[in-house]
Design a protein that fits this description.
homotrimer, 139 residues, alpha+beta, 3-stranded antiparallel beta sheet
Chain lengths: 139, 139, 139
């Protein structure tokens, strides 16, 4: 018989960039009692996003941050700048990455590959905690 | 006991760019009778896409449209131009954004953040209605 | 009564670029016995990704490959280059496209549009087989 589990994660990023929270997701799945199913993560913000990426090499993480800072730069002469120069590039970098991720679950674990980690991609400075809604359906 | 609901939305965009249809999605979820679950939106096209973005500031919407017009421009000397200069950039802008979005549902509402709206991102001119398939599983 | 089905696809890409595998997905859904539900595909790698795109025009496919080679180029002076010049651009191109796709299923078929195909986007040279996890929940 299929059933569901939900949680709301709060993640504080102390600086812009990629912040891994795979361990929090692993705990949620393990504690849900659901062994096989579909896990969904949803970021409730438009200036932060989600990314599954290489979790072993810090240099890869830095290159990713540098890349998105370059293709959606702060000095992009945007019309929307009410909240400062990091406001509009944050929306662009969110649009280019992901608001939501779904991952199958098998044997009580998300089926991530060996080198895959789940990251919050914080695009703004001095933000409060970010909310990630978790949903799991399965049995 | 879990069950499912489905619908097919038709959305006509009178011009290229972002068109919010959050209200149609809210209605579908409210009328489904499913209070807790997972909602999925799927765009049945390769030259239009989906985006969850800031729904309060029209300037942010315009900046997003300008940005994607710049990074995947019409004058990009593409090999594929059978259907005109807005054909290939439409595929590129779709690839860079989203064909599909899933959002957890709680208390009969998608758990969107305060400033999040759901948008059709129309990348072509003079298109017919676009079809968005909706699926909801829950209880 | 809802139930689930799972599979693990192995796909070998003989060269970097887009490789359609819609037929393998069609077979999985048809053989699952599930007629209505939600299908999820998950790529277990950070240097290959998924894309739903135009499946009729080979020129559109080539333009997509050329575009991503240009916006995330091999000669991008990356810090992370342990595995060669195609390593870091592979992560960037994966981040810009999709690790996961979900598609509603109706009448035993994913509700793809007429011109939509499902592609593995291989970003590296000389890779082993890639693993795509499939999950289907429905009835």
């Amino acid at each position: 018989m299929l059933r569901q589990a939900n949680a709301l994660l709060s993640i504080r990023a102390d600086r812009p960039g990629l912040h891994e929270f795979t361990d929090k997701v692993v705990d949620f799945v393990a504690n849900s009692g659901i062994r096989e199913g579909l896990l969904t993560l949803f970021c409730r913000h438009t200036s932060a996003s989600l990314l599954i990426q290489e979790n072993a090499a810090p240099a890869a993480r830095r290159d990713l941050e540098t890349y998105f800072a370059r293709i959606a730069p702060e000095n992009g002469s945007y019309e929307h700048d009410d909240e400062g120069p990091d406001d509009m590039p944050a929306h662009l970098r969110s649009a280019l990455t992901h608001t939501q991720l779904s991952i199958p679950v098998q044997a009580s674990k998300a089926v991530l590959g060996t080198w895959q980690g789940i990251f919050l991609f914080e695009h703004r400075r001095n933000t409060p905690e970010r909310e990630i809604a978790l949903h799991l359906v399965g049995e």
